[in-house]
Design goal:
By secondary structure, the protein is of the alpha/beta class. It is built from 8 helices and 7 strands, in the order E-H-E-H-E-H-E-H-E-H-E-H-H-E-H. The termini are far apart.
Length: 202
């Protein structure tokens, strides 16, 4: 079994991804490959707790490969019977805000698969927390077909317009394979500049 080899003490990886499978089967294959890769390194998976879409696929793949899988799901979604009953541990929380905070607490790094507005919102908030110095964990967007290319184009535009520092733009990494994504998390070192605003000296 391969081990995470550098940088941070990587024990659990949080995955943000869609609650839909999407139209392109390449995304489902990517989710399954990521679940197997996480388990294959002896790492735990933390994810949104659902049994449907890419969420269910990544969780099932990790479980089948013998990995620990912790789901974190809000009560409202659990009530709709969307919770995965076969994971190692399913934590039911009162709100989406609590969900994101707990997923951060349980994880040592983040991988973003294709998804919709919820996936984008979760990943951008995690990047914002890194920018503010709330955590120093790595964040990798994983895709094989440039799904996230428009996001990185927007990030580049924000940087060029002076709204994002180059160091903070680099908080969002990009990889085309699960192994490369996990290597990036294992070797991640946060930038020394963690705040956009600095106090003026008096």
């Amino acid at each position: 079994m391969a081990e995470a080899s550098a940088g941070v003490n990587l024990k659990r990886v949080c995955v943000f991804c869609g609650a839909q499978p999407g139209h392109d089967p390449v995304h489902a294959r990517l989710a399954a490959d990521l679940g197997r890769a996480i388990a294959g390194r002896g790492l735990g998976l933390v994810y949104g707790g659902g049994k449907v879409g890419l969420m269910g696929i990544v969780a099932d793949a990790a479980l089948k490969a013998g990995g620990e899988v912790i789901g974190v799901i809000p009560e409202a979604l659990m009530d709709r019977e969307l919770g995965h009953g076969g994971v190692t541990e399913l934590r039911v929380v009162p709100s989406m805000h609590v969900r994101k905070a707990l997923m951060n607490d349980l994880s040592d790094g983040f991988v973003v698969l294709p998804g919709g507005i919820g996936t984008l919102e979760e990943s951008v908030e995690i990047q914002s927390w890194a920018q503010l110095g709330i955590h120093g964990k790595g964040l990798v967007y994983l895709d094989v077909d440039d799904y996230w290319a428009p996001f990185f184009a927007l990030l580049e535009r924000m940087t060029g317009a002076g709204f994002v520092r180059p160091q903070h733009a680099g908080l969002a990494m990009r990889a085309s394979t699960p192994e490369a994504a996990l290597d990036a998390l294992a070797g991640w070192t946060p930038p020394s500049v963690t705040r956009w605003m600095t106090q003026k000296e008096t």
